[in-house]
Amino acid sequence: MEKLIQRVQYANSLLCVGLDPVGDDAQVARRLAEVIDQTHDYAAAFKPNLAFFLSREDGVKLLRETVQRIPESIPVILDGKFGDIANTADHYAKFAYDVIGADAVTVNPYMGDDAVRPFVREDKLVFVLTKTSNKSQYSMQDMALTRGGSLADGVAKVACRLDSEIGGIGLVVGATHPNALAQMRAICPQQWFLVPGVGAQGGDLEATLKAGLRPDGAGLLINTSRAIWQAADAGLAARELVEQINQFRPVAV
Which of 89, 132, 193, 222 lies at 20 to 30 Å from 12 by C-alpha? Predict the structure, then answer.
C-alpha cells in the first residue's frame, strides 16, 4: 500500500496500464518492452493478465522478464483472479509473489475469506473481485441477499472487514457499473479500487471517477489495456489518459 501511494503521488497518476499481450511470441516480446518503456512515466501501476502469458509455451519466462523490466518503484498487479483455498492458495501466492515478483494480485472470493487470506502479506496488496466489468446475463453478483443488498454488496462488506482485520485488501469494481461503483464506495469509503472496463468495454471515465474517487482525489486505479496496447504511440496514449483522469480529480496529489 505504501508503495502504491508513493507512486500515485510521485507520478500524479491513477492510471493502471494493463498488459494483455496478443500476437506471435516475437512480436509480443517487442511490444511488451515498448509499452513498458513508453508508459512507465505515466503509470501508477502495471497489471499483466496471467492468462495472456500462460497461453504461450514460454509464458512464465516471458511474464518474469516483463515484471523485471518494470521499474521497481511501480507496483505490479498480477491479474490471475485466483480462487482456491488452503494449501492450494498458498502455492498460488508463492507463484505470484516469489516466482513472478508481483506486488499485488486479484483474487476471486467465491470460496470465502480463506481463499483471500493466503495472499495477504505485510508488503503485498490483494484486490478482491467484487463487482466486475463484464455484463453477464446471469450474474451471481446481482443476486439479492435475504438481509438486503446484493451479493456484490456482501462481498464488499467482507472485504472491508478483512481490511480492518488484516490489512492490504482492495476491491475490483468495474467501470461499466457507475451506480454500483458509487454503492461500493459508500460501503468501503477508504479502500483502493482497481477499476477495469474504461475504453473497449464501454465504461465512462467521468462517471467512474465521480462515482468512486475519495475526497482526497485518490482511491481508484483506472485500468486500461487495449487502448494503450493498440496505440501507435503507447506513451502518448498513456499521457492523454492521465490528463483526462486528472481533469476530474478534486485534488491532484
Answer: 132
